[in-house]
């Protein structure tokens, strides 16, 4: 029997709402409203969710609590070590391990800019988010700040199992996320990956769009473009050089 999904469904990853989780692992990096995390927990997955913005973590908690779904706020010390062991999921139920930190290449602390308009453009690197955050902070006399110092951790430190689905929507930070997950990919099977490909964001991070494609290739992933910016629904990336010539002509933002 398929699980009954009671809330909004992410059209990019509808299988999270129809698959049988059976305590298989999902990694969700970049939450905002947490719809993918919520869908996966509701389907019975064990979800490792990473999000540095406290407001977005609160949105995710609310979505889970509203549907009586189980989550655990993960507590780390200043050096990124667990303060308490992660609880085991209950039989037949999914769980979210909610890490209110950023995923990255290695442990550390870094400046993050929460976009005060919609929140969807929040980023380490996007100059638009940085401009919005600093401008509002300079004009705002309240304690609410949008320029944040956030903890950064490598995913491989906490996820040590096969992964059914790995999602990263991090506004140009994808390469660092994958660097911090490289051991996970090397030691375990990661069945599916959904990753944002945003050339402008990658360039803002000091990386080239080609470098993200090269990293995915180095992880021995078979890549498909779901075609959200073009007419084709699916395009198989056999010839990376030809694909990049097309992809970089896509209007961004």
Strand content: 15-25%
Cα radius of gyration in angstroms: 18 Å
Task: Give me the secondary-structure category.
Answer: alpha/beta
Q: Averaged pLDDT, please? A: 87
Query: What is the N-to-C succession of helices and strands?
Result: HEHEHEEEEHEEHHEHHEEH
Q: What is this structure, in a nutshell?
A:
The chain has 253 residues and is α/β, with parallel strands linked by helices. It contains nine helices and eleven strands.
Please describe the structure with a list of short key phrases separated by commas or semicolons.
253 residues; three-stranded mixed β-sheet; disordered N terminus; alpha/beta; globular
Description:
The protein is α/β, with parallel strands linked by helices and 253 residues long. It has nine helices and eleven strands. The strands form three sheets. A six-stranded parallel β-sheet has the order 3-4-2-1-8-9, covered by helices on one side. The N terminus is likely disordered.
Task: List the SSEs and their pairings.
Elements: H1 15-18, E1 25-29, H2 35-42, E2 46-50, H3 54-66, E3 71-73, E4 95-99, E5 102-103, E6 108-113, H4 127-139, E7 147-153, E8 163-168, H5 174-179, H6 182-187, E9 190-195, H7 199-204, H8 209-218, E10 224-225, E11 235-236, H9 240-247
Parallel strand pairs: 1-2, 1-8, 2-4, 3-4, 5-7, 8-9
Antiparallel strand pairs: 6-7, 10-11
